[in-house]
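Structure in, sequence out. Go:
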């Protein structure tokens, strides 16, 4: 680990990957997040000198070099508990995880069977908004959010940045072939009075560029 890097001496918490919201012992609600971007950012932050804690959803990825601690979770509630167990000491929180918006209201201990009466109805309840909760804390770390958008990337990104009162937001376009699960990506990095476009690149290279942006904005806020 570098001791004179852009994030030297800082503690960074990163959440990454999807969450799985179990319906019964064999089914769950989930999404296509691979965790690749979040893990690349964890590696880049570690290389930049940060003490990195990585809260990882269910992904098949090895812990990046430079990560001091990894906490594996499955559900949104578990991810929230893990984040809040370490957030008090964090200087920067980078929320890359694709946390499920909903979970089933009642988990079935047994496999739900097909019945002649028809398709079962699943009642859903909203999961906690981990990013918004961290951003609402006082004091709080420097908070970086992510937004995966299918259209109007800049407009929707700006709205999320303001609505959740974030310090920075990285927005990207997703469809069936780009963004989630891909090996490369492009980002629109936004903050209250500015932003920068990071062109398409392999996710490890993009992560390094994003970490440089985060470090610059964090230092600017500290010296404001």
């Amino acid at each position: 680990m570098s001791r004179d890097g852009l994030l030297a001496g800082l503690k960074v918490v990163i959440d990454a990957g999807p969450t799985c919201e179990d319906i019964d012992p064999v089914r769950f609600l989930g999404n296509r997040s691979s965790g690749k971007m979040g893990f690349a950012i964890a590696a880049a932050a570690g290389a930049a000198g940060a003490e990195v804690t990585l809260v990882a959803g269910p992904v098949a990825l090895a812990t990046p070099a430079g990560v001091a601690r990894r906490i594996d979770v499955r559900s949104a509630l578990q991810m929230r508990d893990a984040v809040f167990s370490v957030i008090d000491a964090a200087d920067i929180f980078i929320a890359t995880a694709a946390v499920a918006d909903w979970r089933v209201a009642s988990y079935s201990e047994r496999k739900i069977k097909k019945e002649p009466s028809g398709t079962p109805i699943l009642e859903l309840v909203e999961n906690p908004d981990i990013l918004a909760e961290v951003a609402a804390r006082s004091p709080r770390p420097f908070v970086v959010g992510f937004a995966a958008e299918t259209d109007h990337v800049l407009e929707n990104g700006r709205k999320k940045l303001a609505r959740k009162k974030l310090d920075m937001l990285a927005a990207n376009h997703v469809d069936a072939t780009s963004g989630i699960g891909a090996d490369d990506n492009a980002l629109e990095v936004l903050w209250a009075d500015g932003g920068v476009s990071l062109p398409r690149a392999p996710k490890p290279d993009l992560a390094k560029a994003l970490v440089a942006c985060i470090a610059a904005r964090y230092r600017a806020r500290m010296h404001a």
